[in-house]
Amino acid sequence: MFSKCQLIKIPQFSGPKGSVYTILIDDEEITAFKNFVMMNNSFKSEIKDIVGRLKTMGFKTGMREDFFKLYEGKPGDGVCALFDKEDSNLRLYCVRYGSQIVILGGGGHKPKSIRTFQEDENLEKQNFILRDLSKLITEKMQDKEIWFSEDGLDFEGDLTIENYNYE
Amino acid sequence: MNKSAQENFDFIDDILEEISPLEMKKIEQRMLNAEKIRKAMDAKGWNNTKLLEALNMKSLSIITKWLSGTHNFTQDTLVEIGEVLGINFFEPAEQGITIEFSFPVLKNKTSGFDSYSSLDYILNANQINLSNSFNNNCTEYQA
C-alpha cells in the first residue's frame, strides 16, 4: 500500500485531552486528511461537523471509544471509523490509541447502495492502508523506535514509518 | 514538523472559521452529553444493555447513537436518562477552583501578610463562598 508513511500532528485538533495525527504517504504533498476534505467538499456540512467533533475531542472530551465505529480492521489493530450517522455520506477511517491519540487516515463517500467497505474500491484501499500502518507502528513500538510520551498525549521517536515489505 | 506539513493545515483554520460559535457549541454539547452519560454508566457499572433495560426501551442502536456524540437530544430524553442514571443535565457544571501557594501556609496568623489573609482576599475579591466546605479556615480579609 505504501513504502513510507509520516505521522503528522494536527495542531488545530490537538489539545489537553488528546492529539490528532494524520499521515503523509510516500512522496505525496497532501496529507490523508486534507485529501479527504478536498475530495468531499460537496458534503460541506458533514465536513464541518467532523472538524468540530475532532476539535472537541482534542480539547474537551478525549477520543472516547463511543465516538468511533470500532473493529473496522483486524482484531486488536485499533482501526476504526469516526462514528457516522445513518443519514451521513462520509466515512473517515482512523487508528485509535486509547482515548488520547487518534491517527486520521483517508476515507470517502460511502454510497447508500453498499453494505461493506469491500464493495467500494476507495474505501477498501483507505481501510487497508491503516491496517498496514497499525501493524507497522506496533512493530516499531516493539523495537522501541516509536513510543508514547510520558503524558500519553503524543507519539515520540521516529515518526516516519518505513514499509520494508512494500514492493 | 516541516514547513510544508505545517502549511498543509491552514485549510482547517478556514473550515473552523466557517463554523459559527453557536454551531460549535451545539457540537460540543452533544459530545459532552454523551460523555456525561457514559461516565454515569461507568460509575454504576452499567453497560449499554443495562441502560436500555432501565429505560424500558428495545433498540440497542439508540444507546450507541446517544453515546456517539452526534445525537441531538430532546429535553424529555435527557430528563429520562438523567432520572435512571441519577444525573442532572440542566444544572451548571461545578467549577473546580484551585489556588496554589508558593510559600508555606501558616496555621495561625502572626503579624503582617500571611497566606490565610491572602487567600481570604482572593476569595472575597472573587465572591467565592466556601462556607459549606469542610475545614474552612478562611476569615474575612483585613489589611
Description:
The complex is a heterodimer of chains A (167) and B (143). Chain A has 167 residues and is an alpha+beta fold. Chain A has one domain (4-120). Chain A is 29% helix and 27% strand. Chain A is built from three helices and nine strands; from the N terminus they run ββααββββαβββ. Chain A has helices at residues 32-39, 44-61, 121-142; strands spanning 4-9, 19-25, 68-69, 79-82, 90-97, 101-109, 146-148, 155-157, 160-162. The termini of chain A are close together. The model of chain A has no long low-confidence stretch (mean pLDDT 94). Chain B is mainly alpha-helical. Chain B folds into two domains: 3-85, 434 Repressor (Amino-terminal Domain); 94-143, no CATH class. In chain B, 52% of the residues lie in helices and 0% in strands. Chain B starts with a helix and ends in an 18-residue tail after the last helix. The A-B interface holds A 6, 8-13, 24, 29-31, 34, 37-38, 47-49, 51-53, 55-57, 60-61, 64, 66-67, 83, 85 and B 1, 4-5, 8-9, 11-13, 15-16, 18-19, 23-24, 27-28, 31-32, 34-35, 38, 64-65, 67-70.
Q: SSE layout and pairings?
A:
The complex is a heterodimer of chains A (167) and B (143).
Chain A: E1 4-9, E2 19-25, H1 32-39, H2 44-61, E3 68-69, E4 79-82, E5 90-97, E6 101-109, H3 121-142, E7 146-148, E8 155-157, E9 160-162
Parallel strand pairs in A: 2-6
Antiparallel strand pairs in A: 1-2, 1-9, 3-4, 4-5, 5-6, 7-8
Chain B: H1 3-7, H2 10-18, H3 21-44, H4 48-54, H5 60-67, H6 75-85, H7 115-125
Looking at this protein, list some descriptive labels:
heterodimer; A: 167 residues; alpha+beta; seven-stranded mixed β-sheet; two-stranded antiparallel ribbon; 3 helices; 29% helix; globular; B: 143 residues; mainly alpha; 434 Repressor (Amino-terminal Domain); 2 domains; 7 helices; 0% strand
